[in-house]
Structures
1.
Amino acid sequence: MRYSYYPGCSLEATAKPYDVSVRSVCQALDLELDEVKDWNCCGATSYISIRELTAFAISSRNLALAEKMGNDLVTACPACYTVLNKTNIYMREKEDIRKTVSEALAVANLKYDGTVKVRHLLDIIVNDIGLEKINPKIKQRLDGLKIAPYYGCQISRPHGTFDDPEFPMTMDNLFSSLGAEVVNFPLKAKCCGGMLMTTDPENGLSLIKNLLSCAQDNGAELIVTACPLCEINLEAYQKKVNRKFKTDFFIPAIYFTQLLGVALGLPKEKLAIGKELVSSEKVLDRFYGGKR
Amino acid sequence: MIKTSEKLQETFLEDIYSIPDGEKLKNCIQCGTCSASCPTSHLMDYTPRQVISAFRAGMLDRVLKSNTVWMCASCYYCTVRCPSGIKLTDIMYELKRLGIKYDLYPPQNASPVMAKIFVDTLNRFGRSAEVVLLSLFFLRTKPFKILNFVPMGWKLFQKGRIAVFSKTIEGKDDLIKIIKYIEKKGVA
């Protein structure tokens, strides 16, 4: 199976381990990823806060580039996913947006006919490949590992394309089929604060604290996310949370592709495991010959 | 209580109704599902429900000058739960844009600064360069706080998670042409 790949800006920087593990896992699952050549930033939640149509236009440049490649466009970043998806829907359904954006694209010798399907990698893995086909490739079951899959917002909101906007289950089902114990985690789709962690850290920290205590109080040893911003917010600010709220959180947060890669028997380096700020060693070493 | 000047109020109305599905705002029943679902409504000067209420009362400028819309983290809970199908997150975006356009945003709030720097960075590189973005952000908002981020930045750097050099995309000229075209049309 072949897909066009849109990494997004985070995956080239703080979320580099996500990109590394995405590529390794896709290779192990026989998914071919062709990176969209010379893609630009999707604009995230910021560009549209300043300019609307321009935001749709720069996002459409990516869709136009992907359309030439012919396959579904896959990204692992929920923010990119939502922005590209929203742009795609409006380019198909809203005549006024399509008209102006098409004119703008034409200035750069590009055109977009609205034929690209925007997908999240989690959707591809669970629904295009499917658990039955993944299971025979599993080298290392995750028995006994207690995890809290954390979805955050934009993977299922607002569009709810492949999972429930209120109570998503895709990662729960994936990892419990691999033997992991998914703990009760009612806040799994609550917001981590996103950019607020940077622009308003005091309030950002309290949102993070709620998520961390919900995961830890329910017995999770590991948080698994499908979002670069959620991942960095959840792991990088634990010390600050501890200082502010007199707590003692030390709970690693990794990308879902990293954990899936563990189950596929991939070596740590190929999954960029060890690049966390809160070490996952204690939790994951049992799968690499270490003691529990 | 000072009301938003009638002309400005009319402009706001037109602008909000012009965004995709913006007219659904008329269907608001003031049930408060949006405020109850919002992870940051307790931090807002006006809750999401009150935003619509203020809008109807012609007092939108007060909302724009408050921290309200800039506390929206784009989680889309209000949008998926609204019984009237109002895309409130998109309306929050439109209110952010109106605030910037009419210079009615809260000067002490860091979020509009971040959004502007994000746009500048994207226009410059074609991508969002985290290092440039955060450096400019702290320089412009709280230069002394930058020190608080040094330990974390250093750890991330050691883990290979900081892209020190910002790449500029090859098609940057094309990207600028696209942006300029829309701006020239005056519909940005």
2.
Amino acid sequence: MTLTYKILSLCSLALLLFSANSFATGPRVAPSLFVTDKNIMYAQEYSPFVGNTHEQQGLLMELISSVLKAEGIAGTVNILPTQSMVQYYFSQEMPLAIIGPDFKLSKAANRKAIFIPVLGLDTFFYAYQKGETKVLDWTGKLKNLKGKTYGTNKGEDISAYKQAGINIKYARTPALVKQLQQGKIDFIGMPEATFNYLNKQHSPEQAALFIKITPKAGKILMGITFNKNHSEGQQAAKAFKTGLKKLISSGQYQSISHKHIGGDIATDEFIKRMQ
Amino acid sequence: MKKVYHLLAGLSLAYSGLALAVEPIKPESVGLSSMRLGRLSQVIDQHIEQKKIAGAVTLVARKGKIAYLRPSGLADIDKPMQADTIFRIVSMTKPLTSTAIMLLYEQGKLLPSDPVAKYIPEFQNQKVLEMNPKGSEFPYKLVPVKRDVTIHDLLTHTSGLLYLASTGWFPNDKREQVVSFYREAGITDGFCRPDETIGEMVKRLAKLPLYAQPGEEWEYGLSADVLGYLVEVVSGMKFDQFVQTQIFDPLKMQDSHFYIPESKISRLSADWSSDWHGSLERVTGPLIDGDLALCPNDAYATSGKYLSGGASVLSTAYDYYRFAQMLLNKGELDGVRLLSRKTVELMTATNHIGEHDATLLHSHGWKFGLGFAIQEDRSHNVDSGDVGVFEWAGYYSTRFSVNPKEQTITIFLSQTSPFGAHFGLWDKVTAVSTSAIAD
């Protein structure tokens, strides 16, 4: 057997083994094979703060991305639709960080958490106007709302509501707005930006009938929680804090906030505290 | 006198509409026994008299001709059932959705073996939920998929996607845990019509854990809803628009809709709740039973965002017959070729799900093709038909069955829930119609 013949035979065998047909029926190369989980971060979808597309990444994501980019903290952000899944990944796996509201983590998970608040917003109760009657007797004391039904997401600490004799109904936020309109619940609570966003998306024609109740109901903190146990977690948290200060002092933070939620929903007090 | 006759004839035509337009032929001319088909009427009338169901439209066709088309009972309170009454066919939407996918396949726009993530990126890097041993610190873990979910997995219900309602059918801890994620993410089974697009729902669903590794279990669930969105992504058209122009129009299915036109609301059957023991009531609100949420009155909506590939279509017995006859004719009806013979052969092949059985509607001996169950062997507890019979059903008690060997189609449309008690009735309808074969 000549060398040329041997080479030709090997080439023929290779062609046979790797022909288009064999690829057509064999195992496929999946994108998942090339993705590293090393610096993965998980975020909870929470419009308009954490969107689920690159085009509509949301206020919180844009602030965090700007800092991560400026400080050279590399990582992939995976946006998830439930808080439980984000909590699972933080407690059971080794992500670099999680992004979203101040997650209610277990004691064990809390020990490895470095929470850095990025956004602090006032929350308000909302009710649906039915006739002329006063929709909600809210003066800042939950006990005045005894017997009413409060709609919320799973994960919110509702112990104070329960203590005040308020009934609780759980649903996803868009469904809560619908239930409020249908009279299935009496009030919901959220930042004004969230409420405006949902109204615009789901029931713009009904917007005037939803009543924002003052005084404010509370405050929500959103941010990034770094994982101390991740090899780069502590260093990344330190760099992130520095980067966030720079973002605020340069005015970039304010201009991003303004772009997303306008000047009327003040984050000023929070910025002052951050500074 | 002549004028009065014409007026009466016109009124009669307008009232009964389709009943006159579609005149069944003499059963004997297609090898069916009239006397034996009469038994079908007896079985259904008996169920109506016993107040198990309010009414039904039943259709039997053979060799391309309708030999039996009978409305019976009530469509609504004080409204008799008509041959052209419109029904919520719910899961009988799925074969239509599969056909939409196969149309795109024939156009070279996708392959069943393609990973879904190729078209819907949210399906990348999916995880599967596995329960940890009892007593573990954390109850479950999420493990990477061994391979991506493919379009074939969606067509055959081997994707690992669930229905929330399955917690009631096959309860176990793992299913409960996966469904708790569905609940939290606002996923619904599509039996109600939420105020969002199917794409919004599917993108969230893709991020949640699967119940089983792709291809490893047969699990009836939201796969067809994902296929509906896939049609939108690949075709660039809204799903209802695609089905209308590519399936309903060519097959002249004039009374099939995702949202009912205002002018046809009066033809929509009411839904009835039956305890199967004589208590029969017209349903007026949503029916919620654990994770099962049914909103029969959503069918009266004339427009909306949600287009479920698994549940949204409203149709008539005659329209669905035209669709089934196209499949029986291996892709062609009245000179219009919708699918190629080879595509229908692929859809109706019995070996798509390997060792698994499609055991929701039937028992062992039934496999699942690309959109419906297929009878595979006779060594199990099979009541009627032949190997190769394909069929599926809908939650509000609707069922179709196609027997390629005997060239028969049986369609039974009712609107009664819950559906659990109806399996026996459906099986009797197909058994009696099969027994009418007399050649």
3.
Amino acid sequence: MPYIMSQPTSAADSLRPPVRPADVADVSTGSGPSAEDFTMRLLIVEDDRSAADYLRKAFREAGHIVDIAGDGEEGLALALDGGYDVLVVDRMLPRRDGLSLITELRGRGDATPVLILSALGQVDDRVTGLRAGGDDYLPKPYAFSELLARVEALARRGGPQAADTVYRVANLELDRLAHRVTRAGQEIVLQPREFRLLEYLMRHAGQVVTRTMLLENVWDYHFDPQTNVIDVHVSRLRSKIDKGFDPPLLHTVRGAGYVVRDIAR
Amino acid sequence: MSFVTSLGRLVRTTAFKLIAAYLLVFAVFAGSLIGYLGWHTQRLVTRQASESIQADTDFMKSQFERGGISRLVQVVNRRSRAPDAGLLLLTSFNGEPLAGNVLNLPLNFLSQEGWQEIDYLRSDDAVRPPSRALVHVIYLPGEFRLLIGRDIVEREELRKIIIGPVVWGLALLVVLGVAGGIFVTRRVLKRIDQMTATSESIMAGNLSGRLSVAGTGDEFDRLALSLNAMLERIEALMIGLKQVSDNIAHDLKTPLTRLRNRAEDALRTARTEDDWRAATEQTIDESDGLIRTFDALLMIARVEAGQGQSAMRPVDLAETATGVAELYEPLADEQGLDLDVAIDGPLMVRGVRELLGQALSNLVDNAIKYGAPDMPGERGRIVIAASREGDTVRLAVADGGAGIPPEERARVLQRFVRLEKSRTQPGSGLGLSLVAAVVQLHGGSIRLEDNGPGLRVSIELPAELEVADPGATSPDDAAL
């Protein structure tokens, strides 16, 4: 049983059908294509200096611009000055806690996407965080690749693609209204869940999407499925949309997740 | 000194304070009742006396008006000698007695008109002790002064009759009350002291200590029995906790040691960048595994502590189970297992969708890990069945694998317990513990049964009686 492993990242590799090295993007070096032609301005509100410094460094390596606020009041003042694509807010902060910062921000009509970081990771905490006006919630400790993928997804949220009825990547087309998928003009029959999986991946085309993001957004599950069930679903989807077509579009990003992208472009 | 302190302790007890308070209330009540009666009787006696004095006064006045002072002197003298006569004294303006039966009256009594109470000696009986009387003094024309009075010695005697026994009775009551209080309180104190001594010894670490039960079935026995039950539970929890922390120490130390060894090994042997990268990735994987174990432990702890109760709402277990089955189906398929679903929905329960989903996925995950048949090339079968029977929703996940021997079934629900055969598989030994905790949080029960061959995990949950809109709990339906 080669693929039942406790480490999702390495298991992913053993599951995946053989890929050419070019398919494997690597975000951990920061030079991966996930940062292509896309620079975000981020505000990180985090009172732990070393955590904040680590995040600043990591986001900079990924090609983004980062400001840091050390407490809730400073964070609110900076956020209200505006100009940020995404705010990353720790929940427990001196002077003004994270949730109250978000509530205040929303109360003043600021809709900048907010990702909440929290050491509290239980179901109720996530719900209260989102109810306060947060857009996403990530419990600590987290993998930076997970945070980066989520922040990038938030920054592009509400982009033109969200309203489109047809998603297109290279010669792959997904019609959201007709529930139809074609590749190079040939119709591909997908199961309903496979359709939603592809829809989510294509909506975030060019962005790394983590397994947890897929589990949350495609299955609406906020728990740990232990084994790498998502990988099997993705590999099934890949065999339907990529097998026998060129170029390959659904790539595995080692240590992070998946991305749908036309590498040739 | 020790007597004083023990008396002080006695006096401070609730029982003693209660008795003292009752005693006080009773004494005040009895005292005021008797006081009221006495005061009323006295007033009656006094009123009778004053009425007859008034009648005499009117009579004397009329005699004086009719016959002047000489007639009054006659009348007074006659009346003074009558048996049971009241007090009578007629004087001239300078206080010289003209007639009457009262001796030794200080003159100042006569110096003003009106009602008074005085002590007096009667002129006809000098040996009697002074008596008390109510007198009325009037001035008559010609500066004559007339004193008319009535002995009110009966009133005084009545007062003595009432006050004496009351004082003694109350004194006796207080003495008996205090003595009884001390007696009762000492008995109570003795029991309390025993209990205190036992609890102190328990606090000192003797967790198996229990309060003594006298067997009389009184309130102390009832208290001791319920405290003993509580101690029983605490002891069981403490033993469990100790076991868990031992297990945590062991099960977390192992991967930590591995992690450390790998890092050390990399430091010593890594030459190329690829070596470093591989070592770092392994380190991250190991720590991810540790984080998962911690998360699972925390989740179990929170679920067992009853957290999440506030997040409970109607959940369609059929939808959750179908979703989990669908999530795992491809994985099972690759493992050579058919994942069959026999669900008759909707099956509404009151619960937390995430927790129920996690529990179900743990069960299916286990079934996939351990449910493969021994014969290579043969396809195994996992069945997820759910149905409603009366007020109960039954859910079962069954596989055709090696199963769990009956004697091990209770044990595998505990944290970190992994059977020898499963040691080779990855896992933390927390999966079934979490399932058990989730089931307990939802007020259900869990049984591990023989599926002949294989394991069958049966769960019963109380059904949610009012059927809510199933769409509300399954955002997936819209897209499907």
4.
Amino acid sequence: MLRDALAGAPRRGLALLAILLVVLCGAPWLAGDYLLTVLITILYFAYTGQAWNVMMGFAGQLSLGHAMYVGLGAYAASLLYVYLGIGPWIGMLAAIAIAGACGAAIGFLAFRFGVGGVYFAILTIAFAEFARIGFDHIGWVGGSAGFFLPVANYSRNDLWNLRGSPMMFYYVMLGLTVAAFVLCHLLLRSRMGYYWQAIREDEQAARSLGIDSFRYKMIAVVISAGMTAIAGVFFAFYYNNLFPEQVFHISRSIELILGPVIGGIGTLFGPIVGALLLTGLSEIMQDLLAAFGLDVPGAKQVFYGICLLVVVLMLPNGVWPWLAARLGVSGARR
Amino acid sequence: MAASIYLNVTVSGLLTGLVYGLMALGLSVIFGVVRVVNFAHGEMMTVAMYLAIVAFNAFGLDPLIMVVPLAGALFALGYALQAGIINPFINRPEHSQFILLVAVALIIVNLLLIVFGPDARSVQTSYSFDSFALGALIVDATKVYAAGVSVLIAAALFAFFRFAPLGKAIRACADNYTGALVVGLDIKRLYALTFGIGAACVGAAGAMLVLLIDVTPALGPAYTLLAFVIVITGGLGSMPGALLGGVLIGLTEALAGLLFTPSAKSMFSFGLLVLVLLFRPQGLLGKRA
Amino acid sequence: MTHISPKRARAGISRRSFAAGAAAGGLLAGSAPFRIARAQAGALKVGVLLPRSGAQAGIGQDCQRGVEIAPAIFKELNLPELAIMNADTETNVEVARARAEKLINDGAQLLVGAFDSGQSTAIAQVAEQKGIPFVINIAAAPPITEQGYKFVFRNFPTAPMILGDAFANQKEIFQAAGSAPKSVVFMYVNDTFGTSMHQGISSVLPKFDMPYKLVEQIAYDATARDLSVEVAKAKATGAEALLMVSRLNDAILITRELIKQRWSPMAVLSMGPGWYEDQYLKTLGKMSDGPLSFVPWYDPNKKLSRQLEAALAKAYPGINLNTNHVFTFEALLVAADAFKRAGSTDPKALADAIRATHITDNVSIGPGIQFNEKGQNDKLKNAAIQNRAGKLLTVAPKAASNAQAELPMTAYDKRA
């Protein structure tokens, strides 16, 4: 199966990928703590971007409320851990189930009633806001005062309970991102992947060929929701506190999709390149402004916005396709 | 609770809803004609509000008087935005438009933060604290003025699109793009004009809203969302729909706040939105595409 | 969606792709250049984390004023010098954590911040992990000092402490004024602080045997721009007084609504920010008089308070001394004092020194700054202040007051 998966990939692309993986695996030994935090952030956004990409890039549905799945996953696993002592890896299953169910509900409502495009996007925003306001009012999850996970010491790495040093979290996130990448690659090359691409390009035509677009769109939504929920579990155990205002907020949903959109929708490397670029950009901007003595609050965001603008204007398909062409690795791999 | 509170709250919701309706009208025009998902809508309104405050504090010009100049200023901004940046994005997929306008919104919000600082600003006119008392009914004076002017502007806009040749041309673009091209209309210029008009609407709404609420740089996003909820509920491409949607949302939030817990009142507007999307996706007054 | 035209894949790794790979690695390493730790002698490097942009920007920038005026005063007090490193948390938990990491990476030996409970929690975890002392200036959520941290210290009352003192002070004021409301309606903003207060009220209120009955609790959305419905609801309860937890913008909005809806409660008892802030006083003019705020505050009779007040008036004329300035200043005071006693910049020595803090010549109300075994200063007392003619007078507790409270509040429509 490995040979099959790797077939058709340009040699150069594989080599680059291998180099990247080695660098990433070795990073914690070379990087300082601050850089490690930045890398964890990059991987987190690469992972969630990839999850979102399944719905958008593969099934063509624009979701602007993806933070809801992060939040649902986070709260589900946290509540199970704090109230019932259930470890996060088991809690993750509950998280996936709950998020998947919500995704299915939204998908069902939207697709059965023919809600698409911008309307679907607004629908997802509405549900995310629902969740935000709802959780703000639920007493036993803390409401807006927040839900706190008990923080243990950092000297021991308890992988089962996800309590430990940043290095442990880094490898967990790296593992998740690689797994997401592999999963998406396999999905794309599967029959379902081709159905998705067909639906995305022209749903009418696909249906006329006998592809059950409703079913495959639903599957994409559920997979996307489930994957995102796993990120939520990680989020909860890494930050140890959850506030509905922050977890479900629309700015989180927007943050999430910046990576894949800038990187390249529907591509495999898009979310990763996007996450790297955006987080790196943000940090570099911070350093540059400090170096020039321009410590004005808001200045960084202005420059960040301008960069976003420039990238979107000049590279409409995203950075990865352009980069891939430059590196000479575009081809059978998308 | 006494009947008077229901009356007061209903009237208040209605009046506020009319101002929201004017704001949403701008989005309806932009979205309905140019088909751009303007996620910087609320931010444009925030700009108008800050301009109104500057005009008031520097020159003592009441926002009610400043409605027309502010609308004009926003018209210019909208026109420039459309002609300059947004035009190539009209046929691009929604997510690209979305990111473009999110970037624009981000820039506007933080420029406002840098220029005006984070503190809330407001306009304190001589009638800011006034209210009319009619028996048990106590109505906020500023809301009455703001709602009144909003209705006037909306009426002017209706008239423009109904009777003016330019207005009809714009409607033609919206109804039948190819047909409009065939007939020889300059689509690019008309789109820019339309965006400008939509922005002017939002500018006028901002001038009105500044009498009712305080401005902070981060005010925009909530109103962008509100505008979308209203436009979709009322019906895309229908101007009475935008006003109706505004009133409906204003009333829903007011009554929901009264009957349930006020902190959850937005849930009801979103609930209404979901119902409309599912059962009447063209909106209450919209036409089936 | 356009297609990418397939290109002929060339075998092997060319110089170009190798360079690209190296560049990617360089981007990773270069995004946060390594800083060699500088020599330890000299000033203590203190990282100050505050929300300077985002939703809490106004408060963050106000806290910053407390930072700016500190150095001159420390010099007068013969305290050692602090090298301040400012950072912006952008009102975002993730950014707060990353900035804390960066400050420590850049050599910060002590952290101060961060106004918000959520962001403070994130920073606390980083600080605890790295063994860097973190002195919280303002954050009221109880859980932060319940985690068993050894390096986190909070010189600010928790929500239950604020509530308890509020009720005690209210009783004192009612007794002195000879009148008390028979019923109150509690309106609170549905955010972290407001909800903490709401959660505390049911357990704290019964302990105090207040003369009034709490008839209803009304929560409102933190981002609400129109509070007419909420105020109408409060008015309809028939309560005599308004018990509040709000922020600045809501305070202004609510006051306007009170005037427009023609309701002048007997008293406005605010247990949070907003009703005493400069913006409130400036915006509402004579309509700003009257509300009582029960908040962590400075003791106007203490010497250092007068010094701080003078320094603030000089640096920022027209700005009243408030909670933000006071507690941010005191957090730095704790740092400087600990540095002096520890005699070294070693974080562990500093933490031990902070644990032994006992500053009686301070600014806030109470016996002084000291920390219990959880790192919390549980001896802090809160004051009651009242707005009068654009100034803030401390009306309770008696030991720290400089005026008598005016009760009931002059009706809004009777103000000339």
